[in-house]
Amino acid sequence: MRNEIKAILFQNIWLIALLIIAGGFVVYTKNNALDGDGVPPQELSSQSFRILDSTLTPRPVEQTIIIEPIR
What we know:
There is one protein chain. With 71 residues, the protein is mainly alpha-helical. The chain has helices spanning 2-11, 13-31, 41-55. The longest helix is centred in the first third of the chain and has 19 residues, at 13-31.
């Protein structure tokens, strides 16, 4: 019985190795969900915060607000 199990495992060792590699790849891609350009999320978030900070910097506005009293 044990020899049969060993023989089946040894014959299918390439299939078992392929399943282990595929499982590791799935776990890797789930943990490091890559963006379309291949930038990991932690680098992407610091980049997007920098872009967001640069867009939110206050700029002088050349506007005159005229408030008229209600009659």
